[in-house]
Design goal:
Two copies of one chain form a homodimer. With about 350 residues, chain A is an alpha/beta fold. In chain A, about 30% of the residues lie in helices and about 25% in strands. Chains A, B: It comes from Mycoplana azooxidifex.
Chain lengths: ~350, ~350
């Protein structure tokens, strides 16, 4: 079987395309920059591993000072527990006997494990699974405008916290939100009001966890938050540049692609389709940015083809057979498509890491 | 590490979610129905393996009468060659020394291997790689309105065919198109004109290969085509129902998902995000159809969450913790996200197949 993974020392122009590649120096700089910023505002930083899914990168994040990691599914947490991680927050409602059993087994081997809940149904399942001897830390997930999961009001948050605090096998640890971009004010107001309500009930709320990469460098606008979680910042992507979260020089992931066809003067086709870029638009009207060819727009993707419209591309485009570099709209979803990730420094491969938690959704 | 794959005999309601599952009887019926239809019009049928990526399913397709298989990338063809397949068409321009070397090695072990070309650059690379003793079969890819790859006119097709025919190591075998949906008339006209031009040059064109699942059952509207290629028909999906290609009863793939949150009266959240469904819209404005809950719309996806808007859902939605079944917009891309695929009959697991060619894009 063909082995697409290059040896250390291989120049990137000899790598099989399509292939995402990660710039070592930019990753290292992104990790340090975010950590220092969050620390400088007196908050803990908890990276979300969903962006890289690689234990070695999470270790770099902990070495820089992160308090622990954030996983989305138990299956991810299980893999990172196997890799020795001792402080794991799973920001997902865990439901049903099989998953609750796995959660209990996981808690027995992870020093500090916490989860979230946003309904009585979730709390009931957790409460029936854990016992007094080794209670599980639970945070209440709050919807502060992101309109995904989460209780809708501080009153509901406080009521659910009370229910958690009353369960012998659970320990109420705090509140958590994944806010809408630009939602600092709403987050702060939600936290402050919930803490007031909890204080009136005599319930402590040590952790107030805020999140999101687009708002990472606005974390200081939520003074009541004790912790920030972010994933995408580690590689960054086109959506992060648009959000003003980073510059082009902070983009650590590129997709190397080859021009495979020039069927018409205003159209070229690249070999990076939705199996390399995914169809995530994130508000863009095209599927990625081709470096060095301003105005060239990836207007459609099929699984193995990216169709590029050159109507508004001023210069000469790369010829059939040439390699180009594409900045993906969304980096996290690209990580989930490849079994391994190729790292480089100055265009030479430095390491190839297994994407340890690729494909885990359970 | 958690093993998400169920034992044979497991009822589907005990399967870990999110999980795509395939109905054995519907797959078998889809395979036979398409094969009989194409054969009845005197054409060869060549299934595209991109939809399932599973050798065992491709074998079912050959047993039903398919002439061979269609792969999109060499890496897929290598995997199917390893699995013993002897007639493989790769419908992709193959460029660059490393891929051409692999193609040559592949041709040495596949009885009938053919590829496409749509430019002089591609033909030159192939011509420099193959020799008289064992020439490579090459088809000219034609753009008949699909606006992806392909030469633009019958004149260009004939000129490229002449170039292929003149290369000692290549054998011109015919022409191929992946048309726009509903493009039968354009395809027929393109083929007829190209054959006239080739006949005038004394060049035979034994294979005229047409393709696409949306137009599969319109294949008879292209009488000059000798072969039809299709992938999606084997599982079918929401886009195929919309195209009138199949009914709901022909849908072989469903994504089992669990309701994980009901944050507001008009909103629920399922555990099947873009890592289970992908973000492929294919012209829809939502990300899949939830069976049995008409009007419930999956309005946004993040990696692990599907946010469902219930505003227009008349009945009572499933409760937190309950399982639902989602019909994906696009089935092929779902296959690429899971290492294995779970098959069932009447709701009981029959087999779990490795998705042999998952993640191969090279």
């Amino acid at each position: 079987m063909f082995n697409p993974w290059p040896e250390v020392g291989t120049p990137l122009d000899q790598v099989a395309t399509p292939m995402p590649v990660i710039d070592e120096d930019r990753v290292a700089a992104n990790i340090v920059r975010a950590q220092r910023y969050v620390e400088s505002h007196g908050k803990a930083f908890r990276p979300h591993i969903k962006t890289h899914k690689i234990a070695a990168i999470a270790r770099q994040q902990l070495e820089a000072g992160a308090v622990g990691i954030n996983c989305q599914k138990i299956s991810e947490a299980e893999i990172f527990a196997d890799a020795g991680f001792e402080d794991i927050l799973i920001t997902y409602n865990i439901l049903g006997t099989p998953k609750l059993k796995r959660l209990r087994a996981l808690q027995e081997r992870v020093a500090r494990l916490s989860v979230v809940a946003d309904s009585a149904a979730v709390v009931e399942g957790l409460a029936a699974t854990f016992e007094t001897g080794r209670p599980l830390s639970v945070l209440v997930e709050c919807d502060t405008g992101g309109r995904r999961c989460g209780v809708q009001t501080p009153e509901d948050a406080a009521a659910l916290a009370e229910r958690i605090a009353a369960a012998p096998g659970l320990r109420f640890t705090g509140i958590l939100t994944y806010p809408a971009a630009g939602g600092a004010q709403s987050v702060e107001a939600f936290i402050v009001r919930t803490m007031e309500l909890l204080a009136a009930k005599g319930i402590e709320c040590p952790v107030r966890s805020n999140g999101g990469s687009p708002d990472l460098f606005s974390a200081h606008l939520v003074p009541s938050a004790t912790e920030h979680r972010a994933g995408t910042y580690v590689y960054n992507d086109r959506s992060m540049v648009r959000a003003g979260h980073c510059t082009q020089d902070d983009l650590a992931m590129h997709i190397l692609a080859t021009v495979v066809s020039r069927p018409a003067p205003d159209r070229v086709v690249l070999d990076c389709g939705s199996k390399a870029l995914t169809s995530d638009l994130l508000g863009f009207s095209d599927y990625g940015m081709i470096e060095g060819f301003e105005g060239a727009r990836i207007v459609s993707l099929s699984e193995e083809h990216a169709v590029v419209d050159l109507k508004d591309c001023a210069g000469t485009f790369a010829e059939v057979g040439a390699m180009v570099r594409v900045v993906p709209n969304h980096t996290c979803v690209v990580s989930n498509l490849f079994d391994r990730m190729v790292f480089h420094r100055d265009g030479v491969v430095t390491r190839v890491e297994a994407v340890d938690a690729r494909g885990t959704v359970w």
